[in-house]
UniProtKB/TrEMBL annotation:
3-methyl-2-oxobutanoate binds at residues 56-57, 95, 124. It comes from Woeseia oceani. InterPro entries: Pantoate_hydroxy_MeTrfase, Pyrv/PenolPyrv_kinase-like_dom, Pyrv_kinase-like_dom_sf. Its main location: cytoplasm. The active site is at residue 193. This is 3-methyl-2-oxobutanoate hydroxymethyltransferase. The gene is panB. Its cofactor is Mg(2+).
Amino acid sequence: MYTQLEQRGMAEPPVNVSTLHKMKEAGDAIACLTAYDASYAMLVDNAGTDLVLVGDSLGMVIQGHDTTVPVTVDDIIYHTRNVARGLRRAFLVADMPFMSYRNPDQALENSVALMQEGGAMMIKLEGGDSQIEIVKHLARHDIPVCAHLGLKPQSVHKIGGFKVQGREPEKAQHMIDSAQRLQDAGADIVLLECVPNELGKAVTEALDVPVIGIGAGPDVDGQILVLYDILDITTGRTPRFVKNFMAGHDSPGVALQSYVQAVKNRDYPAPEHCFS
């Protein structure tokens, strides 16, 4: 009945927001992955992953869409519920799909559904300054929030494709400022996608909260990749920041352990996975 009390006796207690903040303070790299079902969630958890994201990337790697836009709240709840059953230690984050947080009240309603029905421990939403009031509203209701900056896949039609963001000095500074404002509004984590190394480092140094990168260079607090990408399941071209961790390994479990170790040792990302 009292699962949280039972888990306190584990060799490694479950990760929470405080754990992640202490890891940043200590300079310990945070290893993160996506997952979409219970079986892979167990493998990811057993590999020592600190944070698991049920990303709207499921629209592409599970549902076969070209973008994340078609994913619904019900889709995320379903997959989050499945992933939650496979986790013991890792911290579970769920994506807020496209147009599911158009205003603070809608954002709160859908966040509650993701947590109560799906079992999420934190929600992630894309956007900068336009989401400040939403982040404040969620924080006032004790909803843990991960803010997503840089390349925002839900905005792919607006920005004209999957492109590196923040190369221009003024745009880089604006992203740093936005990250600080989101932190001040109550964001507990910032996810930074597809930006130059220097910008990843600058955002990380400017914030007190952990910065998780995906194509954001080696100097952020942690790394996240799409599970299917690192297991060489994704067909076709993959982004530059992806590394195939199945290469040289004979099982997904060992490949996942290799990924976690590479993040912890800061061997990943290597220069060939980064943007200048």
